[in-house]
Design a protein that fits this description.
The protein is α/β, with parallel strands linked by helices and about 170 residues long. Helix content is about 40%, strand content about 20%. The protein has helices at about 15-25, 45-50, 65-75, 100-110, 140-145, 150-165; strands at about 1-5, 30-35, 50-55, 85-90, 115, 135.
Length: about 170
C-alpha cells in the first residue's frame, strides 16, 4: 500500500523529519512510503496513496506562505478525498504555535474530504494528540535526534491505521 509524506522545508529540519515519518511507515509490512517536497511531488504516487501526511515549519505561529499557497492551489489535484491524513510541524521554539500549524493543515485536509487520524492517547506513549512536533534551531540536525522516535512511531501508527482501513 502506498503512503506519502508531503512537506515544505526551509532549513532541512522539516525535510529530515518527513523522512523519519516515512521510515516509520515503511516499517509496516506491505507499505511503500515516500516523502516529497511540495515542489517535487510525484502526483501519480500520491494519487495512489491511501495515507498522506503533510508538514511544514512554523513561522510566526502559522504555516509558511509557500506551504499555505500550495495547500490552496495544488493539494486539490492529488485526489485526496477519502484518504487517511495527518500532520506534523517543526519549529525553533517550544511555544511557537506548532499546534496552530498542525490544526491549519488538518482543517485543510478535512475540507478536502480526508479522514484525520493521529492515534491521540489511544496508543499510549508517546501520546500524539494532533501530530508530532520537533524543536530545533535552523539546520541543527543533532538537536532533532531526540524527536526521531516519536516521529517514527507516528509514521508507524499512521501506516497501521491505513492498513486497517484500506486493506
Amino acid at each position: 500500500m502506498k503512503m506519502s509524506v508531503i512537506y515544505y522545508s526551509a532549513t532541512a529540519n522539516t525535510s529530515r523529519m518527513a523522512g523519519v515519518i516515512a521510515e516509520g511507515m515503511n516499517s509496516v509490512s506491505g507499505v511503500e512510503a515516500r516523502a516529497f517536497a511540495i515542489d517535487a511531488v510525484d502526483e501519480e504516487f500520491v494519487r495512489e496513496s491511501k495515507c498522506v501526511v503533510m508538514g511544514c515549519p512554523t513561522y510566526a505561529a502559522d504555516t509558511p506562505a509557500a506551504f499555505h499557497v500550495w495547500l490552496e492551489q495544488s493539494a486539490g489535484k492529488l485526489a485526496l478525498p477519502g484518504k487517511l491524513g495527518g500532520a506534523f510541524s517543526t519549529a525553533q521554539y517550544i511555544h511557537g504555535g506548532d499546534e496552530l500549524v498542525i490544526r491549519t493543515i488538518l482543517d485543510h485536509m478535512m475540507v478536502m474530504g480526508m479522514l484525520i487520524y493521529s492515534g491521540g492517547g489511544s496508543k499510549g506513549r508517546p501520546v500524539i494528540h494532533l501530530g508530532p512536533v520537533a524543536i530545533a534551531s535552523a539546520g541543527d540536525a543533532e538537536a532533532l535526534l531526540p524527536f526521531d522516535e516519536t516521529f517514527r512511531i507516528y509514521g508507524q501508527r499512521m501506516a497501521d491505521k491505513a492498513m486497517e482501513l484500506f486493506r
